[in-house]
Design brief:
Elements lengths: L1 H26 E10 L4 E7 L4 E8 L7 E2 L3 E2 L7 E6 L7 E8 L2 E3 L6 E3 L13 E6 L22 H7 L4 E5 L13 H12 L5 H6 L1 E5 L17 H11 L15 E5 L2 E5 L21 H13 L4 E6 L17 H13 L5 E5 L6 E5 L7 E5 L29 E8 L6 E8 L4 E8 L12
Parallel strand pairs: 10-11, 11-12, 14-15, 15-16, 16-18
Antiparallel strand pairs: 1-2, 2-6, 3-4, 3-5, 3-7, 7-8, 7-9, 10-19, 13-14, 17-18, 19-20, 20-21
Helix pairs in contact: 3-5
Protein name: Alkaline phosphatase family protein
Organism: Candidatus Thermochlorobacter aerophilus
Length: 452
């Protein structure tokens, strides 16, 4: 009789404990996600379904007995129940495993939870080899709010394909969500759209073990083709801050989402092509995409950079000479000013990345007495494909690089210090390589002036 009572008590305790663990798992809305990585700290992100206390525990994979903890943060409705926590007990060049705790209970995930810190290599070794995934235009269907007809989003398995390539980081090139008509005029709508997109099951493993950086374009800023006059842009900015883990949002007094990060011997300059943009149809007054202050910051930062590769990421195409849709050619004066200033300042190693166009291509702009400028336009991830690209008069397109299906790219930076190379490889949604091109760092150098 006593043993039966003892068994009953144990059974009740087991189900109570199991229920508590299940309750914490059901509180998880999306994530965990890795944000920026530095040598001395890493950002970890998570979203819950309701107010909850969240914390991460982590350890060096080579020393699992020494466990560190982040601070505990209470999620709140004000920030859409998101939390960004800093792992600050880390060392350079290490790989870590981590666990998520909600209300003091560990939340199990059916995929690896790992992050890394950047390598301390300068004055010590050759630059490390590393790989950055990139892409744009991620439309996730929600029939209640989508336009009638054929679903616009498709091929969600692309996120599994990216994950299986094991990149070190991913740079999202804008239109990372698609605000609908029901979304962009309210805080509730904007945050709901972010939540719906971020909660996609196929996305979770990629979020959990690859470091993520992002810029925006029109669809994560407001209505289609919107500009800086959009009345609700501050709400869009606050939502972007809540759902991404960039090192900063704006630089100094410069508002918006522009920022900069480094990985190995590459500096990445993330531009805001919406916050300061003037209407494309405006006929009087200044016409700009970046705005004077942001353009000045970019040039100053490029000149100051000592990186082998200087990667400029912007939502829309820069080098395509055809003034269609929202290409920079529609703002010809500022576009030319940007290109001319890069040339006059003799800045080596510049590469452009862009999204937006719903097709992928590599553009090369020859320059007199300098190296050619390259731009990889990479789109779409899961949204519809634009089939008119082959009829555009982009005479700068590199032959064999046009892709008209869902795709992503990997940027592999490799080689010894004096032999660095960038290899751009584009893959379809199933992870099959579609094309690959390599660019030597020595081919991105401003020629040394000859002494007469």
């Amino acid at each position: 009789m006593r043993s039966a009572r003892h068994f009953t008590i144990l059974l009740v305790l087991f189900f109570l404990a199991a229920g508590a663990l299940y309750a914490q798992s059901t509180l998880l809305q999306s994530g965990p996600m890795l944000g920026y990585s530095e040598m001395r700290e890493v950002l970890l992100w998570v979203q819950t379904k309701a107010p909850a206390k969240v914390q991460f525990k982590y350890w060096d994979k080579e020393n699992p007995k020494q466990v560190f903890e982040t601070e505990t943060v209470q999620t709140s409705k004000e920030k859409a129940f998101t939390a960004s926590l800093i792992a600050d007990r880390v060392s350079p060049g290490k790989k870590y495993q981590y666990e998520l705790y909600i209300n003091g209970k560990k939340v199990e995930r059916p995929y690896p939870l790992e992050f890394q810190t950047q390598v301390l290599w300068k004055y010590r070794t050759d630059p490390p080899d590393f790989t950055i995934a990139t892409g744009s235009c991620a439309y996730i269907n929600e029939p209640e709010f989508d336009r009638p007809g054929k679903p616009y989003g498709q091929g969600y398995e692309i996120f599994k394909a990216i994950y299986e390539k094991r990149p070190d980081a991913m740079l999202w090139l804008g239109d990372n969500i698609y605000l609908r008509e029901a979304d962009w005029n309210s805080r509730t709508g904007i945050y709901q759209r972010y939540q719906h997109t971020r909660s996609l099951p196929e996305l979770q493993p990629l979020l959990a073990s690859v470091h993520h950086y992002a810029i925006w374009d029109d669809h994560d800023f407001g209505p289609n083709d919107c500009d800086g006059s959009f009345w609700n842009k501050e709400q869009a900015l606050e939502a972007f801050k809540c759902f991404w883990g960039n090192p900063s949002y704006g630089v100094g007094t410069l508002r918006g989402i522009c920022t900069q990060f480094s990985w190995g011997d590459a500096d990445f300059f993330l531009l805001d092509n919406r916050y300061y943009r003037t209407p494309q149809a405006r006929k009087t007054g200044p016409r700009t995409i970046l705005g004077k202050e942001q353009l000045e910051w970019l040039i100053n930062a490029l000149v100051a950079s000592k990186a082998t590769f200087k990667v400029i990421a912007i939502g829309g195409q820069v080098l395509n000479p055809v003034a269609v849709y929202e290409t920079y050619a529609n703002y010809a004066e500022e576009r030319q000013l940007l290109i001319d200033t890069i040339t006059k300042e003799a800045i080596s190693g510049v590469i452009f990345l862009s999204g937006d166009r719903h097709f992928t291509e590599l553009t090369m702009l020859p320059r007199k007495d300098s190296y050619p400028l390259y731009e990889l336009t990479c789109s779409p991830l899961t949204s519809g494909v634009f089939k008119g690209a082959r009829d555009e008069a982009n005479n700068l397109r590199v032959e064999g690089t046009l892709v008209e299906e869902q795709n992503f790219a990997l940027l592999k930076f490799s080689g010894k210090r004096e032999e660095r190379m960038l290899t751009i490889s584009v893959y379809n949604k199933d992870g099959k390589e579609l094309w690959s091109r390599s660019i030597k760092a020595t081919d991105l150098q401003v020629p040394t002036q000859k002494v007469e």
